[in-house]
């Protein structure tokens, strides 16, 4: 059941979008600490490789390795597709990520993914408590008539 409140939660929507923008900027700076500052201490994350990471320390350790190693020359644009509130302190957020050049131009045929973030509001601050990032692949369908 999706939370319904008489007054729109537009302020919270904007705060969540701001968090996503900060995560994008941190990813593009390859700054694991800044990226992970938006995770709760007991967060769970499943990355595009299907690897489950539990807790801030493990998430941060892996992000430090990949952002200074295999993803050192990777850049992305994050776009919020949707935000649904479960209650006033929990939101489900769908985020699309597109490969870009270092100056933010989208790379045609580049890697794309969609992530689901379960975000919680702790002391008026939105943080990611759980999420999964999934690579998107182009699918060729053979239609048989």
TrEMBL record:
<dbReference type="InterPro" id="IPR027843">
    <property type="entry name" value="DUF4440"/>
</dbReference>
<dbReference type="InterPro" id="IPR011944">
    <property type="entry name" value="Steroid_delta5-4_isomerase"/>
</dbReference>
<protein>
    <recommendedName>
        <fullName>DUF4440 domain-containing protein</fullName>
    </recommendedName>
</protein>
<dbReference type="InterPro" id="IPR032710">
    <property type="entry name" value="NTF2-like_dom_sf"/>
</dbReference>
<dbReference type="Pfam" id="PF14534">
    <property type="entry name" value="DUF4440"/>
</dbReference>
<feature type="domain" description="DUF4440">
    <location>
        <begin position="16"/>
        <end position="128"/>
    </location>
</feature>
